[in-house]
Amino acid sequence: MIKQFHIMKNYSLFIIAFLLTIVVNAQNNELKTQFGCYGNNDSLTIKAIEKTKAIQILGNGNANINVKSWELAIQVKKGKIYTFKANSSLITDRIREELLRNFKRAEKVMIQNVNVSVFNKKTQQYEDQVAPTTTLYMNDKAKKKCDEKTSQAKDDLVLKFSCFKSGESASVKEILRYPTFTIINSNPQVDIKILSYNFVLPKMDGRRNPTNIEKIVNTTLGLNDSSFNYATKLQPGENFMLDDIKVEFYNRKTKAREVLTANPITISVQRNSSGNCGVAAGIDSVLVMEYSGKLLTGKEKNIPLKNKKVVLKNGNDSIIQITVTNSYGDFTFKNLSAEENYLISIPAEDDAQLKDQLIHLAKVDGTIVKTLERSGNAFVYKILPAELHVLAKEEVEDTELKIRNFGKSSDKQLTVIGDIYYAPNSAEIDDKSMIILDQIVNAMNQNMSLKLAIESHTDATGDDNYNLTLSGKRSQTVLNYLTSKGIAASRLGAKGFGETQIKNRCKNGVDCSELEHELNRRTEFKFTK
To answer: Which residues pair with residue 526 across a beta bridge?
Structure first.
């Protein structure tokens, strides 16, 4: 009887081990390894090799997957295999050179020994796995496999929060030192914009989270006040997590615009950080930012300076970057440290473009920042670290909180510009806009003395009368939504102004960028008591 028990026990252990193996293999089989957007048995062209920036690991329900290391094996026609290693998802210059050098004689290439860490949503921990090998072939006559609007743009994007990559550890103090996304975009033709994301709260006790909130929606680059306040309550062993990150890609050349969902970002909260954010301890531990601006001239500050040289200097007056403005007067400097002082300098050459010998610095949406002062042979502007941080963060107070604070104050009027989005030539509002409107509903329900005037505006493209009618319909759509949520119509008013209140230079007949037009397409909420 005892012998039989041991046999049954060993047999049971064998069955359990076998089933665990099946589960692990099933999880691994869910993963897919891709060269950019090229998967198993696809053919690579020379152009694909030149343009693809990184390998991708897909699967596990779009879980957060970090590539730790991988090998590229090139098998040439006589069976000899050459292998090259990489320690991140990025395709190294050496690997790219070898692929191109062996393009004609390679029988096939394999992406193998792909070591990844996969975030387990159930355990809230990262687990090491090996992604399956992918085999690819070389054929320069192969049909294009990838959709260049999406896959290539996403390959060019690296997202961090503050200066921490997903999978790293950090203290709460370090995470919240710069509570904003860091966007690293290596494609100069593509504009990238964070539209929205969720701050996901871990399980907290009733003292830290009395209303049992699970997620907080954010619609700005930096954390809103509510998310920030809850993040300060995180404790070692918990996770700082952002998911459902909606990213807009806009290709300035093709005019293609698409919204994709980026991988979640999960940072393990520890007493000590894995890097010193903002301290010059290596490129990955320094908060890297971009500075984008626009140069305008003329009495009305509305004429863009085209093809104008713009010089960036450091605190020692040494030149570190030089660029030239585009046809809209726009320029961008990349890879700037948030801890440094910088100086923008525009040579004061004899230029027929300059009106009244004045240059005005603006944001890319056309909002004037400052009139530049001439210093010797150049117009100069000093950028301080605090300004860099504010420009990157785009800090906007939480809408609901802002209205509540107004209700408690002695102020008579409050204007809130809501990020309400409409399809072109349409008055229908999208799901993202409803989040903002629901915040307004909550605030108005908590203060019955508040009244609201809804004012919608358009850009100056299209017919004036059509735009006036369209803006009126958009205001009425917002009003209808608020009344459907229980707000009395007697507390609301709606009016459309069309293109009669343009906020920048982009009036009729003026050639403007998409970002400049976007500033004018707005809905303003004017609260009174």
So the answer is: 415, 453
